[in-house]
Amino acid sequence: MEQSIKKALLEIFRLIYEKEGPRHWWPAQTKFEVVVGAILTQFVSWKNVTEAIRNLYSEGAMSIEGICRLSQPRLQELIRCTRFYKQKARKLKEFCLYVRDRYRGDLLLFFDKDMYSLREELLSLYGIGEETADSIILYAAEKPIFVVDSYTRRVFTRLGYFHPQISYRDMQRFFMENLDEDIRLFNEYHAQIDGVGARYCTNRKPRCSQCPLDSICVKSFPGISDGKASAP
Ligand code: SF4
What we know:
With 232 residues, the chain is mainly alpha-helical.
């Protein structure tokens, strides 16, 4: 761990946190709801995800068994507002069938293994990519992995730390090698970066003068673009 980078990362966190306050992530009532949100959130606003989650509750299907019971067309209908809903319905269904069949539907039993074994298992499931797997590991299984995403890439490129084409793995390594392994810090840090990415460091018109990082940002703009719509 390089102490100067650790210090700089903690300063970045402090600056954002002091202005923005706690973000209370992940906004969910249960661990299963975190999983559902993590699967549904890609390429869509969080508002649409909450609508889909509300639909699942109204249907009495917000559980492993509930999703397993639903027909695929009905599941698609309930989460239609989340874009790519056919693929997302398949991802949700396959996740739930897997946990039901391998772990008797017990999410805690599924999570009860070392972090990297859990990550490998999640990544082996249909449609679960690194960001989704890591969000589930950090926010639902509550294990200390650092979640990164397109906002992290954009903000930390503009701050001067990353090359715009840096890989997911290298971004994650950067944080995990330079910060103490701390679930609460990892939880809040990722949430705060996403807040800056969504509110200030937008793709086309960053609002630097209002951004909590304005005083320390080198404002490197290599012209990156991504498909992220919003954060929870
Ligand atoms: S100061 Fe501007 S470029 Fe730097 S992180 Fe904030 S919004 Fe992005």
